[in-house]
Amino acid sequence: MTATATPAVGRTTERAGGGALAGTGVLLRFDLRRDRVRIPVWLAALTLGTLWVAAAFPQLYPTATERQAAAATMNSPAGLAFTGPAHYLTDYHYGSMLSHQMLGFMVIMVGIMSVLMVARHTRTEEETGRAELVRAAVVGRHAQLAAALILTVAVNIALALLLTLSLGSLGIGGVTWAGSLLYGAAHAAAGITFAGVAAVTVQITEHSRGASGMGLAVVGAAYLVRAAGDSAAGDSAGSGLSWASPIGWAQQTFAYLDNHWWPLLLNLAAAAALAALGFALSTRRDLGAGLRAARRGRPEASGLLTTPLGFALRLHRGMLIGFAIGMLVLGMSYGPFLGDVETRLQDVEVLKEALAQLGGATFVDSFIAMIMTLLAVVAAIYVVIATLRPRSEESSGRAEPVLATGLSRAGWLGSHLAVALVGGPVMILLAGLALAAAGAPTVDESGLFWEIVAAAAAYIPALWVTAGLAVALVGWFPRASALAWLVVVYAGVVGYFGTILRFPGWMSDLSPFGHIPRIPVEGFSWTPLLILTAIAAGLIALGLYGFRRRDLETK
């Protein structure tokens, strides 16, 4: 059966009395069965991450004076861009503090979850050919998308309930049950909106990565639009740009402060319209195809494309370019803070203590060391994505015909790994150069530009260790390869919260990022970098050896 025969299959099903949604319940149960691990992990991570921060606020800001000092620190264009509307600052208790600082960030995570979930159960199924087999049974043309949307909506509602129950039971001043219910509902409403976005993007392109990438780009654009609107609005509740973003709608509820429910109607209306558009567009294309016509390729492949490394680079090109742009923007966004970081943060005692623990000669040096850790963790996200790409190629069946040629297994896996090993350093260096270019001119300190670049370069061995752990899992435990993400999550939590919440030193030592000299706070040292590089080389060799010995696995 070919993809072009799909409309006939759909009409046959509908004539048989099944209807366009026939089989939705069966597919929903099947999708739930497939995500029986992913869904609890997402829900636990999002709920516990929020709960952890909320529970820490009373220790971080025990007095009203310290909370007002934090509010004064946030009341700047840059501060509002990273958090939310200035209206939250009018009464900065623990509840409004949680909603102001966490809602915009966590909604991004929820949006990512929703986009990936819809794409996984729709476009990925078509790309691998499984959807064609399913549609050969009594399954309506809209059943697969309907099942994916129902599952995603249910997961977002479950997240809202978990946040409501966990936050409401904390008993922290200002974190009320009514505010917690709205806070959870805001997450769910925004997540459902981005599920609607994914329902449209999966119709546009025939590739699951492209559909996910477009959906995630919308999530990022929504955040940037919201940030621009809130920073431009000053002391008001938000400018017109704030109201042009689904994330802005969620924040305009002012959970724990004013408790406005009506902005969530905008999220739900947008979600319904986008879902309807997705269903309508799905009828205008063949199964497995996209609305966007594939570009004609060259009559002959370039010489680079005929090599393993060139072919791998071509597959990674979109993700590589997208992350490179993102790292440049992220580095530049932190740069303007350097010039007045001491003035803005001098009244926030908890940050002063955290930065003092780093031992920097100046406040600026300590702040650079802390920010560089976060930039390195973001670069590690790219490294894991690139290193796990061979596993995706293998499970989808695309690796088998490639390996049926004269290409060795080590050469095939090594070509993808090479992109990750070079791409990771490129990401962190781009972020470092952007941070140095935007921040060094604002600080009257000679040599700071190259110190920032050196601080970025020092994290390269830690990125290589991350790639080594991922490829070792691919080589020996392919079904558990997703565990590589634990390295990134752990490094992010310890790197971001470790100093502020005073985690013990051994927790940092468990992460490869914890052994990097924090330049410019600390002097440069070759020893930990050489040890990490040797560990990375050993893990890579182990992974390549394991991949040569095992059978290929396809789903």
From TrEMBL:
Tree of life domain: Bacteria
Keywords on record: Membrane, Transmembrane, Transmembrane helix
Record bears the keyword Aminoacyl-tRNA synthetase: no
Record-annotated membrane-spanning stretches: 39-57, 98-119, 145-169, 181-204, 211-229, 261-282, 318-337, 367-388, 417-440, 452-476, 483-503, 523-547
Protein name as it appears in the record: ABC transporter permease
Source organism (scientific name): Sphaerimonospora cavernae
Species lineage: Bacteria, Bacillati, Actinomycetota, Actinomycetes, Streptosporangiales
